[in-house]
């Protein structure tokens, strides 16, 4: 058993594991094993399997950290017996029998969804929408986010697999108050529903990039509950 909890990150749509690059070095410097799962966004089942493989790859108790759709992934994969804490970043967290789309449909549609294009069987974020996704980053960082984002199949949010880890696993939630991608009211309602310890920050949809110190504090708090 590892003396310190490991951290596994799960990214969402129009992102990849590099969206956690302001968090990973600091956690590694503290002696933690860290791994960022990479998702093809071809199917919910396949993406959950990616997170499960990442959990299996690292030692000891595990903190799962999910951003956006990554919250759905840690909700499903977090039923793994070595997962001891869940950290949601501006994230979805559907209940059993509820799809990601079901959860989103309970709240008004956000501005980013007016800047999408479906081509080659994928949903692409247009450059005109990057400000609604990560508008509080410098322009150069916004361009990098746009260039490195994985693109989903159109029905990804309608897919379903079993698992609701937050019902039995302690949870933390970072609410992005200025989010224009996942409704902040949805975030607050989700944090309350799952009984999460909640931290709010005046951030766009990417608090791990615009406010990494805040997110690191929350991850460290969650990890400290599992450290040997």
TrEMBL record:
User: Entry's InterPro entries?
Assistant: AB_hydrolase_1, AB_hydrolase_fold, Sec-Metab_Biosynth_Hydrolase
Superkingdom, natural source? Bacteria
Name the Gene3D superfamilies on file.
alpha/beta hydrolase
Domain AB hydrolase-1 spans what residues? 7-217
Keyword annotations of the record: Hydrolase
Q: Does the keyword Methyltransferase apply?
A: no
One GO MF term on file is: hydrolase activity
Official protein name in the record: Alpha/beta hydrolase
Natural source organism: Kitasatospora terrestris
